[in-house]
Amino acid sequence: MTTLVWFRDDLRLADHPALRAALERDEPVVGVYVLDEESDGVRPLGGAARWWLHHSLASLGERMTDRGSTLVLRRGRAAEVVPRLVAEAGASAVLWSRRYGGPEREIDTAVKSALRDDGVEARSFAGSLLFEPWTIRTGAGRPYGVYTPFWRACLAMPEPRDPLPEPRSLPGPSRRPASDALDDWGLLPAGPDWADGLRETWEPGEPAARRRLQEFLSEDVADYGRARDEPASGVTSALSPRLRWGEVSPFTVWHAAIDSGADVGGFLSEIGWREFAWHTLFHHPDLHTMNLDRRYDAFPWPPLDTDALHAWEGGRTGIPLVDAGMRELWRTGAMHNRVRMVVASFLVKNLLIDWRQGEQWFWDTLVDADAASNPFNWQWVAGSGADAAPYFRVFNPELQAKKFDPHGEYVRRWAPDHADGEGPAPIVDLLSSRRRALDAYDAVRRRG
């Protein structure tokens, strides 16, 4: 008999409770990854995410082979693919890390039910969040809608468990099930290949994730509180795509940060913000399509200005900090968090373009876009989300640049034409567009 470990957003060997439980069964272990773009409600990955997934799967497959087992790749509806693979492999159990999005939970429930009906053990484990969403409740038994009391409640819980060690060897099957070829999935861009900047910026995979964690804690974390809002400083953890793909677990990050002896409260609060996003998604599965605050369903969005949208997407708005951020995003698949807030505010409040347009662009272009944090943060900026920025908060990109990029280093790197005074003219006046946005938000508040 064989035990299958079903990998999803947990592409690692260290601190993997499902993998550890599989090894304790004392039978051959086979990893499986199912590329499911067909099940109802599943959101297809964006281009940058697909690039990362390709390389992370390649790394995981090599590491499993090195340790004696294999990673089987299959494509299709998971509720059909997994039971079929169980039959092919003669598996007695399928183990996996829990997921928290609505469609994903439905898929996992259906798979678990089908397997158990066939007498196959099916178990899920907590591996992706420090605090599972249903375990954190207000005194009235409801989910939290404000971050500070949410994180306070999390910190009052027992300390997150210690991370599990990486297995040195994996018992492989005598006969390995057939696997798709990763290259045949077409996850990498072609015609044209736009990923040069991603290749220059990132190295996906668990080993690189662990190295980056150690580098951050030994070299950068001391300056994190002081410089984290300065986009030119480089003082960020760069862990968000590693956590999104599960190449490193939040338990590993948590304990490594605490053990570093540095002042890591501010950094860990960002891990808490990620937890809050997933807490919110768990209770509101339609987060990327529906306003959390339903009053904003009545927001008077004007007809979509496609020219303005394309100018924003391409970093051609004429606003230096906005254009620098959007060009960094296109080149690297990432953007500094402070600048993300600025460009999002500009789109929603200065251009009066629905936040869902921006969320979809980020979904397509960010290597760290996930189902919780991406829409959660867009709704926060738009004012319609949990613990949202107040409607009257409009990030002025010129003031933000003066405060956080005072010497123009960030703009000079990513938008040198602006630094040379040759950038495009602004497509909108910041003051009058701010007034227009506040009038629209006031109209919603009066109706509510």
TrEMBL record:
The UniProt record lists the keyword Cytoplasm: no
Leader peptide range in chain numbering: none
Ligand binding (FAD): 224, 236-240, 267, 368-370
Family matches, as InterPro entries: Crypto/Photolyase_FAD-like_sf (IPR036134), Crypto/Photolyase_N_sf (IPR036155), Cryptochr/Photolyase_FAD-bd (IPR005101), Cryptochrome/DNA_photolyase_1 (IPR002081), DNA_photolyase_1_CS_C (IPR018394), DNA_photolyase_N (IPR006050), Rossmann-like_a/b/a_fold (IPR014729)
Gene3D superfamilies documented for this protein: 1.25.40.80, DNA Cyclobutane Dipyrimidine Photolyase, subunit A, domain 3, HUPs
Keywords attached to this entry: Chromophore, FAD, Flavoprotein
Site (Electron transfer via tryptophanyl radical): 301, 355, 378
Region (Disordered): 162-182
Cofactor note: Binds 1 FAD per subunit.
Keyword Disulfide bond among UniProt keywords: no
GO biological process assignments: nucleobase-containing compound metabolic process; response to light stimulus; response to stress
GO MF entry, a single one: deoxyribodipyrimidine photo-lyase activity
Family: Belongs to the DNA photolyase family.
Record's protein name: Deoxyribodipyrimidine photo-lyase
Record lineage: Bacteria, Bacillati, Actinomycetota, Actinomycetes, Micrococcales
